[in-house]
Amino acid sequence: MTIWIDAQLSPLIAAWMTETLGVNAVAVRDLGLRDAEDFEIFTAAKTAGDVVVMTKDSDFVNLLQQHDAPPQVLWLTCGNTSNVRLKQILAETFGEARAKLQSGEVLVEISAAPPTKKPSPTSDDESSA
């Protein structure tokens, strides 16, 4: 499985996914598809074979409904977020998402897990004046 990182996501995510999550990931810009329309990316992924398009764009969901898989789509519905937060979300959720993709699911959604909160100080932790 190769994951194509759609243009609205940082291409740095591809290298991070390869190094950290152990999956072959490549940014669409590195495939010469940076300015391509969604349908062109979808068609290229279909032709390439074992490709998953990772995107925030619901147009790929519509393309799946109209044209069937392949490719599979990993749909990020976590909204606008920093690369640091996106990496955190992927680190927490990608194992399950990968299992679903490997079992043949054509559309796998990853939404934002709530950020981990630091415990708030209690009155016992505060020094008295």
Which helices and strands occur, and which strands form pairs?
Layout: E1 2-5, H1 12-21, E2 24-27, H2 38-48, E3 51-55, H3 59-67, E4 72-76, H4 83-102, E5 107-110
Parallel strand pairs: 1-2, 1-3, 3-4, 4-5
Helix pairs in contact: 1-4
Mean pLDDT: 90
What percent strand? 15-25%
Whole-number total of structural domains: 1
Q: Provide the spatial order of strands within the biggest beta sheet.
A: 2-1-3-4-5
What's the total helix number?
4
Describe the structure.
With 129 residues, this protein is an alpha/beta fold. It has helices spanning 12-21, 38-48, 59-67, 83-102, and strands at residues 2-5, 24-27, 51-55, 72-76, 107-110. It has a 5-stranded parallel β-sheet, sandwiched between helices. Helix 1 (12-21) crosses helix 4. The longest helix has 20 residues, at 83-102. The termini are far apart.
Properties at a glance:
129 residues; 5-stranded parallel beta sheet; 5 strands; globular
In short:
The chain is built from 4 helices and 5 strands.
